[in-house]
Write a structure and sequence with these properties.
about 120 residues, mainly beta, 5-stranded antiparallel beta sheet, 3-stranded antiparallel beta sheet, about 10% helix
């Protein structure tokens, strides 16, 4: 559940939710759809601008999830909400029917990170 003082920030043209802005004393912090801070404490306009600039394109990118056994799994987002984050295993550059999924808490844990490897190399 979202804290009561988080304020939705939506894209101007289509009203798509980009994240939230939360108070931080006299300033504000921009928070993305994963519940992660995008800025430190800044003024309201800077928080809005940071979320607008970040957009949502990053949700379509490849991510990496560290599993309990320490292995890394390439994943894509299946669901991102204030209740949970669901990711699905990417296999050979695609999300195939029946692929494993993982349900993560919101805010998303640090074990979920943007993929930094070579997108064209797949481990056996």
């Amino acid at each position: 559940m979202l804290p009561a003082d988080w304020i939705e920030h939506r894209r101007a043209d289509d009203r798509e939710l980009l994240g939230w802005i939360r108070p931080a004393g006299e300033e504000f912090v921009a928070v993305d759809r994963l519940g992660r801070e995008v800025t430190g404490a800044v003024d309201w306009l800077a928080a809005e601008e940071a979320l607008d600039e970040r957009g949502l394109r990053w949700l379509a990118e490849r991510w990496s999830l560290t599993l309990d056994d320490g292995t890394e799994q390439r994943v894509r987002f299946a669901e991102v909400s204030p209740e949970q984050v669901v990711v699905v295993a990417e296999q050979w550059g695609a999300v195939l029917p029946g692929a494993p999924t993982w349900t993560l808490p919101f805010p998303a844990p640090g074990t979920l990170r943007p993929f930094e490897g070579d997108a064209h190399v797949y481990d056996a």
